[in-house]
Amino acid sequence: MPASPPPEIEPEIEDDDGPSGCVMAFNANDPSGAGGTSADLFAIASVGAHAMSVTTGVYAR
């Protein structure tokens, strides 16, 4: 009986192994940093995605 080759073992894929996604956010800029694009960028980065921000306006307070 000929020896059969060992079965190929596929590595387990974890969530961190794949490429991170890109997220495009459309929002106004808030100079205080409390909201607007600043908050969007922080939230997107906190989940490991790449942020692509499009500023649609500016708040003046």
Fold blueprint:
Blueprint lengths: L21 E8 L6 H11 L3 E9 L3
Parallel strand pairs: 1-2
Give a quick set of tags describing it.
alpha+beta; rod-shaped; 18% helix; 61 residues
Shape: rod-shaped
Strand order of the largest sheet: 1-2
Average pLDDT score: 83
Question: From N to C, what is the helix and strand string?
Answer: EHE
* Overall SS class: alpha+beta
Uncertain segments of ≥5 residues (pLDDT<50)?
A: none
Describe this structure in words.
The protein is of the alpha+beta class and 61 residues long. The protein has a domain at 20-58. Helices cover 18% and strands 28% of the residues. The chain contains 1 helix and 2 strands. It starts with 21 loop residues before the first strand and ends with a strand.
Write a concise synopsis of the structure shown.
With 61 residues, this protein is of the alpha+beta class. Helices cover 18% and strands 28% of the residues.
